[in-house]
Specification:
With about 350 residues, the chain is an all-alpha fold. It is built from 20 helices and no strands. It folds into two domains: about 200 residues, Up-down Bundle (AhpD-like); about 140 residues, Up-down Bundle (AhpD-like), CATH 1.20.1290.10.
Length: about 350
């Protein structure tokens, strides 16, 4: 685990910026700016909408301080050069001391944090890392410390949300937000921190969609009932599976490979059941998850199962090189879709710890 963004080596971007004036206008309307990575995902309608929804989700159950810290801790654990650098700079601009940031990064016992915050940080680290995923006991510990079930659910969603974004920007090898990082280090940034923090703390009206009927939610999305994230997460799953650039069979197998790598029997069983509905015998599904191969896959999709396994735990430079190679083999369109599917699968399986 890197203890500073500069320790994370990266390649050149995997995909180029794809200009789309209408999309960029929408992003600017919602976010107030158009980040580099939002331009690189523009060719995928479903992925760009999920990314916009996830990145602008308003966390209301958890205190703001915890969501600030959780973003940095999750990004650090996932070795995301873009998100780790951005979250660290944002914390400094929000007024967190360099000493506090450094001690959190180095996972040092922090006297200035209360017991709830210390356990929260440990939970975020462990769920982001998922080696292994936190058990039911970890959730019970949070409840015993006074967190409500809704706060614990939002906590797990927060880590899943950031883990999703971390993988999108990491697998695309998105360049850092150099201007923001530079501002946090500059004398002007230090001088204007109170004003900048005030602006950053201005919360826009929530964009969260109306609640969905519980009957339309999958078991994993239902773990978020009571939060706008429930419907939003289900919308993301529905959109990912409906997109035609990679076959449904391949996407389900990618989910299954990631579920098996993260030792989630619930998610693996769900994949087996859905593939059985598609006519794939259970024994054949399990054999494919074991061998990372399926004779019925389109030749252009054959490499996706092995690549999906590599997205669970990775060295940043290595996974980016593998993703460059994937793009050369299957093309930019399928690669972008694969990145979105793998990122969402990793988020889903982490969120599924709430079912244990």
């Amino acid at each position: 685990m890197a203890t500073h963004p500069s320790e994370i080596a990266t390649t050149e971007p995997v995909l180029p910026i794809a200009p789309d004036p209408a999309w960029e206008a929408e992003v600017k309307r919602v976010m107030g700016m158009v980040p580099d990575w939002m331009r690189r995902i523009a060719p995928s309608p479903w992925l760009r909408q999920v990314c916009l929804d996830f990145s602008t989700y308003r966390f209301d159950a958890l205190p703001q301080r915890m969501t600030d810290i959780g973003f940095m801790v999750t990004s650090q654990e996932n070795s995301c050069r873009y998100c780790y650098g951005l979250s660290r700079a944002m914390m400094r601009l929000l007024g967190y001391s360099d000493e506090l940031i450094t001690r959190i990064e180095r996972d040092v016992q922090l006297a200035e944090l209360d017991p709830r915050e210390r356990v929260f940080i440990g939970f975020c680290r462990n769920l982001a890392r998922s080696n292994p995923r936190p058990s039911r006991a970890a959730r019970l510990e949070l409840l015993q410390l006074g967190f409500s079930p809704l706060e614990v659910a939002e906590m797990a969603f927060m880590v899943a949300d950031h883990s999703f974004g971390n993988r999108i920007t990491t697998f695309l090898a998105v360049p850092p937000e150099a201007s923001v990082e530079k501002m946090a280090d500059s004398w002007l940034g230090k001088l204007m921190r109170p004003l900048i923090a005030k602006q950053l703390r201005k919360r826009p009206p929530p964009r969260n969609a109306p609640p969905r009927d519980a009957a339309t939610l999958s078991p994993i999305a239902r773990t978020l009932e009571g939060l706008p994230a429930a419907g939003m997460f289900q919308d993301a799953l529905d959109a990912a599976f409906a997109s035609p650039n990679i076959s449904l069979r391949t996407k389900l197998l990618m989910f299954g490979v990631i579920a098996r790598s993260l030792e989630c029997p619930f998610c693996e069983a769900e994949v087996v059941q859905r593939l059985a509905q598609q006519g794939m015998p259970q024994a054949q599904v399990r054999a494919s998850l074991e061998s990372l191969a399926d004779a019925q896959l389109d030749p252009m999709e054959e490499p996706l199962l092995a690549w999906a396994r590599d997205t669970v735990r990775y060295q940043t430079l290595d996974i980016q090189k593998r993703t460059h190679a994937l793009r050369e083999r299957i093309g930019a369109e399928r690669t972008l879709e694969a990145i979105g599917v793998a990122a969402l699968a990793n988020a889903t399986v982490r969120l599924a710890m709430l079912l244990e």
